[in-house]
Amino acid sequence: MKSLRLSRPPPAALFRRGALRPASTLSASTSTARPPPPHQRPRPALQQRRHASSLSQRPDAKYLMFPGAVKSQFSHELRFVQPSAHEALPTYRAVDQHGVVVDPSFAPDLSDEEVVKLYRDMLTVSIMDVVMFDAQRQGRVSFYMVSAGEEAVSVATASALAPEDVIFCQYREQGVFKQRGFELSDFMNQLFANHKDPGKGRNMPVHYGSRELNIHTISSPLATQLPQAAGAAYALKVQRMQDPSVPPRVVATYFGEGAASEGDFHAALNMAATRSCPVIFICRNNGYAISTPTLEQYRGDGIASRGVGYGIDTIRVDGNDFWAVREVTRRAREMALQDGGKPVLIEAMTYRVSHHSTSDDSFAYRARVEVEDWKRRDNPIARLRKWMEAKGIWDENQEREARESIRRDVLKAFSEAEREKKPPIRAMFEDVYEELTPELQEQMKQLRRHLEKYPEEYDVSPFEGGKESLDK
Amino acid sequence: MTSPSSLRAFSKALAPRGASRRLLRAASSSIPALSPAHRRSYSTHPPNAKLNLPTDYSTTPLLAHSPHAALGNPELPPEVRNGTTKRMNLFQAVNDALSIALAEDESVLVFGEDVAFGGVFRCTGKLAETYGGDRVFNTPLTEQGILGFAIGAAAQGMRPVAEIQFADYVYPAFDQLVNEAAKFRYRDGACGRSAGGLTVRMPCGGVGHGALYHSQSPEALFTHIPGLRVIMPRSPLQAKGLLLAAIRSNDPCVILEPKILYRAAVEQVPTGAYALPLSKAEVLKEGSDVTVVSYGQPLYKCEAALRQAEKDLGVSVELIDLRTIYPWDRETVFRSVRKTGRCLVVHEAMVNAGVGAEVAAAIQEDPETFLRLEAPVARVAGFSIHTPLMYEAFNLPDVARIYDNIKKVLEY
C-alpha cells in the first residue's frame, strides 16, 4: 500500500517543550513550595526556539523563516492557489468490487477463520438492521439507525485496533461494537432500554456504550466526540509517559462528512495536531447528511484535504473494501504511535444506502434509482464475500446457513430483551451528580408521594421495583 | 398526556412511504409477536386514568375549531378579521408565515440544515421552489456557522430566518447568540447597527421518546440574555402571527416551536398576513381563585387540569399564556395574581433556575402583588435532571401534577 504521507508534522517534542516532565520530576515539583512568580519562571522551550529561528535568518536566504510558515519560498510570481489545480487525493483500494485483489503488495494478515468471523460481524449488523428497522415500523422500538453500505468501515477499522484502544463513535457504527464483542443481547437490551441496559433506559435506541469494550457511550450531537477523542488520546499518551509499563494505546473516533462541518471537527484536528495526540480520525463519507448532499456540505476535496491543512497524515480509502479499510487502519495505528504520538485522518468513501434513520424518508430528496444503482454496483458485504468465495473459504451453503442462524439469534435476543422489565424509576434521578443532591432527593420523594396519591394516573408496572424504587 | 398520534409526530414527520412498506412486508412476519401483557409503547396512558388522558386536540378550547373562532381574535387587524381562514397544523402555519414573509419582504432569507427539501419537520416545504435557492437554502452542518452567518446578514440589512434543526443542537451557536446577536446594538451605540433582523427558529420539547438530545426546552438559557426576545407559540394561529412579528421585529428573536404540536395541533388560521404582539401575554381563560401561568404545549395540560379542578373543587381558575417568555408581560401576570392571590407556573424545562423562578420572584417582589398573595407561588416543571427516554411520563408536567398543585395552592 502506498500511504499518502502528504504532510508530516514535526515529531512531538513533548519533553523538550517543557510541557511535561517524567513522573519522577512531576512528583518532585509538586512537593516543593510555590512556583516562582511568572517573570522569574523559565521561558518555555518552544518560545525560545521560535525567537531563535526568526533571528537566525541569513541575509540571502530563499526562504524567510516566518514564525507561521517556516519553509515558504519567496516567489516573484503573483499566483493564487486554485483548488481545482490539484488532483483529487486518490482512493486506496486493495480489492475491487469483483473481489479481485488490485494491490500487488496486498497480503491478507488474517487466518481464514478470522476473516469469516469478521464477515459474520458485517452480516450480523446488516441482518439486525433489517429486523430493527421493521421493529420500529411496528412500534416495538421508538427509533433505529441502520448501517447499510457502511458495514466494512466500522467492522474493518475496529478489527485493526487493539482491544484496549479507546473508541468514540458517532452513531452509525454498530459494526465497531459487534467486532469488539458486544453481544446481540447487549444491542437489544439497549434498544429496548430495559433494566440490563447500562444506559439505564435514559438514551434513545442505538446509543450504545461499553466500559469493558472501551467504547464511550454514544451522544447524539454531532462532532462533539472529536475534540474529546483528541483529549482522551492525550491522556493515554501522558499516562504512558508517566508509567511506561502501560501498553501503547490509541484513540479511534468516527464521524460523518456532515459532522466535519461542525466547529468541533476543526478544533479537534488542530488540537490533536498541536499536542501530537495518538488519535485516528475516521470519517465515513457516505454522501449525505440527512438530506444534504456533499456538494452543499463542502466544496473542497472531501474531508481528507483538510487533514493535510492541519498538518495531519491523511489517507482516503474505498470504504466498501474491507481489506483496504483494515490495512489503512492498521498502518494508521502504527503511525499514530510513532514519534511519541500523532493524529492520523482516514476518509472512508461509502454510500449511505439506507435512510438517515427511521425518522427519515430519503426518497423525498434523492432518486430511488440512485440508491438501486449503488446497491447493484457495490456493497461491502458482497465484495468481501466474492473475495472469500474466490479463495474457496465460503460458498452459497455457508452463506445461507450463516444468514439463517444469525437471523434466529437476532430474533431470540430481540424477544428476550423486549420482555425484560424497564430500569427502576429511581434511575431518572441518579448520575446527574455523583451523589443525589438534597434537591434531587426531595424531588424523588415528591414524585414518590405523587405516585402514591394518584396511582391510577401512572403505569409503574413496567419498571423494576415499581414506585418503591424511589424509597431507597 | 398526549394522543398516540401526536406522540408519534416526531417519527411521523418523516415517515417513509413506499420503501418502508416494502421492508415491512418483507420482514414483518419474522418478528415474533408479543403478548398484549408485554406490549408497551413509550408513553402510555393507564387504563383507569382520569387526569392523565391524551390531549384531545380536536376539542380543546385552546384551538380555533371554526373560522368564526379564529377571526374573532381581537388582536388581528381588521382586514384579516374580514378575510378567510384555512385549517392548518403548526408546521403548515409556520410554512405559511415564512411564505408570506418571503413574499412581502425581499430582505427575508430562510436557511438551515436540510431546509431546502422542506426541513425534517416540513416547516420549509416548497419555499425553495417558490422563492428560489438564493433566498431559501441548505447550510452545512454547523450551528455556530448558521447563526454567525445570520447575524452578519442581519447586520447588513437582511432579515434572515435561521433554523436550528433541534433546540438540543443550538449550543455550538451560543457564543454567536449571547455575545453577538444580543450585544450587537449595545456595543455599536450611536453607530446604530444591530442584528435585529435576525429570527432563529428551533423545535423544542418532549415527544414521548426524544430522550436526552431530542426533548430539551432550553428557553431559560436564552431568557437570561438581555437583548434576545424569546418566544414560544402554543398553536398554529399563534405560531403564524408571532413568527411574522418576530421577522418584522428589529430585535433578534428566538422562537422555540413545541415539535409535538407540529402535526397534533390543528386549527383554523387566518389566511392573510398578520402579526401578533410580542412581549404581550394572553389571558386564555378568566378566573378568580388561582392563576396558572404557562406557555407552549403544557398549556393544553393546564387547561385539562383546571377544568377538572373547577369541576371537583368548585373554583375558578385563570389561565395565562406568556407567549413571549422574555421580555415578559409582567403587568398581565401581576394584574391576574392581584385578583386571584394564588399562582402556579408550569413549564416543561427543568425547574431549577427556570422561567418559573423568574415569574415567582417577580410576583413576590412587586409590593402590591405580594400583599395579595394567599399562598406561595408554586412551580410545576421538569425535575432537575436531563430528559431521559423511559421516564418522560414521570418527568414532564402532566395533568395530574398540575391538578394536584392547583389543589395545593388553594388549600394552603
Automatic annotation (TrEMBL), chain A:
<dbReference type="InterPro" id="IPR029061">
    <property type="entry name" value="THDP-binding"/>
</dbReference>
<dbReference type="InterPro" id="IPR050771">
    <property type="entry name" value="Alpha-ketoacid_DH_E1_comp"/>
</dbReference>
<comment type="similarity">
    <text>Belongs to the BCKDHA family.</text>
</comment>
<keyword id="KW-0786">Thiamine pyrophosphate</keyword>
<dbReference type="Pfam" id="PF00676">
    <property type="entry name" value="E1_dh"/>
</dbReference>
<feature type="region of interest" description="Disordered">
    <location>
        <begin position="1"/>
        <end position="58"/>
    </location>
</feature>
<feature type="domain" description="Dehydrogenase E1 component">
    <location>
        <begin position="120"/>
        <end position="425"/>
    </location>
</feature>
<keyword id="KW-0560">Oxidoreductase</keyword>
<comment type="function">
    <text>The branched-chain alpha-keto dehydrogenase complex catalyzes the overall conversion of alpha-keto acids to acyl-CoA and CO(2). It contains multiple copies of three enzymatic components: branched-chain alpha-keto acid decarboxylase (E1), lipoamide acyltransferase (E2) and lipoamide dehydrogenase (E3).</text>
</comment>
<protein>
    <recommendedName>
        <fullName>2-oxoisovalerate dehydrogenase subunit alpha</fullName>
        <ecNumber>1.2.4.4</ecNumber>
    </recommendedName>
</protein>
<dbReference type="InterPro" id="IPR001017">
    <property type="entry name" value="DH_E1"/>
</dbReference>
<feature type="compositionally biased region" description="Low complexity">
    <location>
        <begin position="20"/>
        <end position="33"/>
    </location>
</feature>
UniProtKB/TrEMBL annotation, chain B:
<keyword id="KW-0560">Oxidoreductase</keyword>
<dbReference type="Pfam" id="PF02780">
    <property type="entry name" value="Transketolase_C"/>
</dbReference>
<dbReference type="InterPro" id="IPR009014">
    <property type="entry name" value="Transketo_C/PFOR_II"/>
</dbReference>
<dbReference type="InterPro" id="IPR029061">
    <property type="entry name" value="THDP-binding"/>
</dbReference>
<dbReference type="InterPro" id="IPR033248">
    <property type="entry name" value="Transketolase_C"/>
</dbReference>
<dbReference type="Pfam" id="PF02779">
    <property type="entry name" value="Transket_pyr"/>
</dbReference>
<dbReference type="InterPro" id="IPR005475">
    <property type="entry name" value="Transketolase-like_Pyr-bd"/>
</dbReference>
<feature type="region of interest" description="Disordered">
    <location>
        <begin position="35"/>
        <end position="75"/>
    </location>
</feature>
<protein>
    <recommendedName>
        <fullName>3-methyl-2-oxobutanoate dehydrogenase (2-methylpropanoyl-transferring)</fullName>
        <ecNumber>1.2.4.4</ecNumber>
    </recommendedName>
</protein>
<feature type="domain" description="Transketolase-like pyrimidine-binding">
    <location>
        <begin position="88"/>
        <end position="264"/>
    </location>
</feature>
